């Protein structure tokens, strides 16, 4: 992980540390944060945030500034896997928006 990804992982960890079932793993070149065994978010190279949401929510969130469908290796993922650019995560309120979106989607599935 580069410095930007490490910093992002630290910010995410601080936001999620109160979650009793939180697990942190290195997966897909990402520092992934899982809740009840399900990936919520991940800190990626360059400080990009990987966010897992429902397909429906992902389609709506793609209109947000700095959001694209995630690409993992040679594979472009569906709209339930989003990459959020560091420019859209500059403060903790912006980051919390994305963490909450992932938590809400996890709770609804």
Tags for this entry?
109 residues; alpha+beta; Aspartate Aminotransferase, domain 1; 6-stranded antiparallel β-sheet; two-stranded antiparallel sheet; 3 helices; 8 strands; 35% helix; globular
Your description of this structure?
- This protein has 109 residues and is α+β, with helices and mostly antiparallel strands.
- It has a single domain (3-89), classed as Aspartate Aminotransferase, domain 1 (Alpha-Beta Complex).
- It has helices at 3-16, 55-61, 92-108; strands spanning 22-27, 30-35, 38-44, 48-52, 67-69, 71-72, 75-76, 81-84.
- The model has no long low-confidence stretch (mean pLDDT 92).
Q: What gyration radius follows from the Cα positions, in whole Å?
A: 12 Å
Q: What is the arithmetic mean of pLDDT?
A: 92
Unreliable sequence segments: none
What's the N-to-C terminus distance? 30 Å
> Could you state the order of secondary-structure elements as H and E?
HEEEEHEEEEH
Describe the structure concisely for a colleague:
The chain has 109 residues and is an alpha+beta fold. The protein has three helices and eight strands; from the N terminus they run H-E-E-E-E-H-E-E-E-E-H.
Secondary structure elements and their pairing?
Blueprint: H1 3-16, E1 22-27, E2 30-35, E3 38-44, E4 48-52, H2 55-61, E5 67-69, E6 71-72, E7 75-76, E8 81-84, H3 92-108
Antiparallel strand pairs: 1-2, 2-3, 3-4, 4-8, 5-8, 6-7
């Amino acid at each position: 992980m580069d410095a930007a990804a490490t910093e992002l992982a630290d910010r995410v960890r601080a936001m999620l540390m109160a979650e009793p079932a939180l697990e942190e793993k290195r997966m897909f070149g990402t520092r992934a944060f899982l809740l009840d065994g399900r990936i919520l978010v991940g800190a990626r190279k360059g400080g990009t945030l990987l966010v897992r949401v429902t397909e429906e929510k992902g389609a709506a969130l793609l209109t947000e500034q700095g959001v694209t469908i995630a690409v993992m290796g040679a594979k472009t993922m569906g709209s339930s896997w989003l990459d959020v650019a560091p420019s859209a995560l500059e403060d903790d309120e912006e980051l919390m928006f994305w963490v909450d979106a992932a938590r809400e989607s996890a709770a609804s599935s």
